[in-house]
Amino acid sequence: MGEIISIHSFRGGTGKSNVTANVATQVALKGYRVGIVDTDIMSPGIHVLFGFDETRIQKSLNDYLWGKATIEETAYAIHEVAGDDPERSFLKKTKLWLIPSSIRTAEIARVLREGYDVGLLNEGFHTIIDDLQLDYLFIDTHPGLNEETLLSIAISSALIIILRPDQQDFQGTAVTVDIARKLEVPKLRLVINKFLADRYDEKQTREAISQQYSAEIAGVLPLSMDVAANASANIFSAMHPDHPWSKAIREITENMLG
Amino acid sequence: MTSGNDDPLKDLLHSARQRSKTEPLNNTPTDSGAVEGAVGASVPAVPQGLNPLDLLALPQAQRDLVNWLSRQKQATLSQIQTALNSTPQVTAQTIRDLKQAGYVREALVDGHLNYRVAFSGKISRAAQNLPEAIWSRVDLDNSSFLKSIPLFRDLPPDIFKDILGKLEPRTYRRNEVIMWQGEPNTMVRFVKSGIVGMTHFNPHDANKRILSYVKQGEILGFYALQVGHIQSSPVTATALSEVEVLALKREDVFELIEKHHVAALALNQMLIQRVITLANRSDGSADEARLALVVSVGEGYGVTTLGSTLAMTLAKTNGQPTVYTEYPTSDKLPALFGFPAEEKTYTHAGGYQVKVLENSPGIPPAVRATLILDELRGEYPNMVLGLSGEMDDSMSYLLERANQIVILTPPTPDAWKKVSALVNRLKNNTSPDRTRVYIVVNRPLATLSGEIVYGQADLDIPYMDNLPSLASHRQDNLPPQFGRAVQALADRLGRTSRITIYIPKRLEDNPIDTTPFVEKTLKFLATLFKESAAIKDESQRMTSSGESGIISETIYTVRTYVTQSELDKHLDTVLDFAASMKNELDQDALAIEVNHKFMLI
User: Which of helix, strand or coil describes residue B579?
Assistant: First the structure.
């Protein structure tokens, strides 16, 4: 049975979707069958990194949650769709599927208004793993803690918590780590993003944070103007494999697969 | 490690509890600080499932089990026990506690009992602050449904509102067990949507028999209504599709029927109907009996011709002894078929027998009907009875046991009025699960050949001036159109269950060509039920759309007639097909009808 890996952050703006897309792609480039679910229904975004826009998303996770589609119908084979773009030809080598959330205003508003059933979400995760014979399913969660993020943590065999070196992130991450411990997530890893490499010592920071949370650090992603300039337009680690940021992504990937 | 707060989860859980208070008809956590369903805590009557926020407050043993099981799709008891390295007793007890709390559900997968974590809870980030008007719309939905159930239909408004507040909703995924046989049953459940299969589960027999289906608007678990001790359920109820039920405690139902006689009478009617349906199914005769009745709305419309031809076709098709006779009197048959009046049984060259019934003076007509049918059943697997004269009470026994009733009518307005009256009358004597009624237009006179049909007929036989006599008719000398019509009736005899799938042809505000979907459905049904033809039809209906007001909708209906055992065996597959069709058509719902019961997929 495939494994579920959730990527979470207590606060928004940590680069969660970017890290999810890059790590998932690196795992897929290793030959694994990989799925990504964007459960950040309130503010979806990971589809952008794979070159998707409103015109290409016919059915989304929202349709599944409202009973208008099967979960399989909402899964887009990225290796087939995005592979036509020369800038994304690396995706042709993968077996990678994306289940996007809707970016239509009315459908986001409907979630705000009516909510959805988390039980159905859980069933969808298991069904898509079976149907697409996935080795790994990555869940790009909504920031913070609520029913949906707790569900994702509860059913995941691995959890990546992303934090920035920021006091607000530190406190919130403590809550998430505490919950993950209670839910006995088999593999709990922290990823430090937007690290000021020219100002702090990476090794010392790793040790301090690892000790504070009693959790292993899967990788430290430096704050990079190159990544910022990419503006989530593509999978940076695949486009610039020799960049320090990309190397850190591969370190995280190895750690998660190890 | 701390986060600056002694219990960082406290606020989070508190907010979840506060939130669920605002959700209508939701009864998960309590105010006590404990999670209902945890060992030693009070247990909700109809558990909703585990809100992920409440997972954190479970007792350790339960949390350990849920923590492992929630990372599987489902698992058997032995798999759980192995994973937790626990004893069978402890594992079973923990499962029982979780099941009682509604956090774990049982599912029958390929005949094996599995357990699943049942998560529930709505993501409602903004919805907790929704205005009352929105919530009342949710309530209205349940209210409309409840109004459709006879038990509640005529209640005073304040009582109705009170009942509405007591209903506890719950949804089940496919294969999930709603109610086990042998379990004490304290709730009465009303099926709001979906279809439930009632089976007698036997772990040594994968081919468990479906005793009945409970569909939208029907009661599930009426055994709970036995006064006195709490009755165990004699059957296992399993969700065959996604099922939504509204449950009411038995005490609440008792209170209702004690105070309101109108509700007691309505409940009585519902239960009687259920008993009749179960009795019809459990006697097992539905698939074996082949009793066709041919009746007309006047003299000279071809009862004997059609009835005897049907008998000949059945004999040829099934290769079994087949009889044709007429009730209450069959005295004219010798003259019509050309055999001596003293002969009571005449073997027709077409392969069937014509029987002259004893008049049995002195025996009450109703008793005579039972004796005749029992005698014929012992000798003939296929029986066709022409009913002559006015329909009277003595015919009730025959009507109730018929698999097929063919109403013959000429295409005239007056005759059609009589057909409508007859169909209404037959509703009192027949069960849709057992008997199919067909309306056949016949044109015995040349003057009727061009007449328009005033209602919806199943078959239309043209005027025939070259019909062979009854004595000489054979399969190979029948006019082709007549032969085909009778063959269609013969094919459907025994196929007493009707499945209809409704496919929109075109919506006025969104024109789509659905012909390929109709063809696909025809092909699917023909493949699944090999010996039964699937038929398509087209009709117009008006429907109310929330966005567009009243709209006209043209509908394709694709229907087929199947035996009870075929229905039991393949209903799951049909529901799967309907669900995939709904998605392909991008519809919110697709209508399917089984024996006159509509359900939305």
Answer: helix
Q: Does B366 touch chain A (CB under 8 A)?
A: no
Q: Say whether residue B129 is in contact with chain A using an 8 A CB cutoff.
A: no
Task: Give the pLDDT confidence score for residue A187 in this predicted structure.
Answer: 95
Q: In terms of Cα–Cα distance, which of B20, B119, B116 is closest to B77?
A: B116
Tell me what pLDDT residue B29 has.
Answer: 33
Beta-carbon count within 10 A of B89 CB: 9
Please tell me which of the candidates A69, A154, A155 has its beta carbon nearest to residue B583.
A69
Cβ of B583 within 8 Å of Cβ of A73? The answer is yes
Min Cα distance B242 → chain A (Å) is: 10
Interface contact flag, B52 A1, Cβ < 8 Å: no
Does the beta carbon of B49 lie under 8 angstroms from any beta carbon of chain A? yes
Residues B25, B166: Cα–Cα separation, whole Å: 8
- Interface predicted TM-score (ipTM): 0.74
Mutate to test the interface with B, among A64, A155, A171 (most CBs of B within 10 A): A155
The mean pLDDT of B120-124, rounded to a whole number, is 59
Q: What is the DSSP letter of B50?
A: B
Sorted by where each starts, the structural domains of chain A and their CATH numbers stand as 3-257 (3.40.50.300)
Pick from A70, A155, A212: which is nearest to B70 by CB? A155
Concatenating the DSSP letter of every residue in B172-237 gives E-TTBEEE-TTSB--EEEEEEES-EEEE--BTTBSSPPEEEEE-TT-EE-GGGG-SSSPPBPSSEE
- Give residue-wise pLDDT tens across range B3-37: 334 443 344 334 333 433 333 333 333 333 333 33
* Interchain CB contact of B56 with A (< 8 Å): yes
Going from the N-terminus, what domains does chain B have, and what CATH number goes with each?
8-117 (1.10.10.10), 131-282 (2.60.120.10), 285-492 (3.40.50.300), 497-600 (3.30.70)
pLDDT in tens, B508-544: 445 667 888 888 998 898 888 876 667 777 765 555 4
Burial class (CB in 10 A: 0-12, 13-18, 19+), B227: exposed
CA distance B276 to B272: 6
CB contact under 8 A, A184 and B64: yes
Amino acid at B138: V
Of A118, A156, A157, the CB nearest to B52: A118
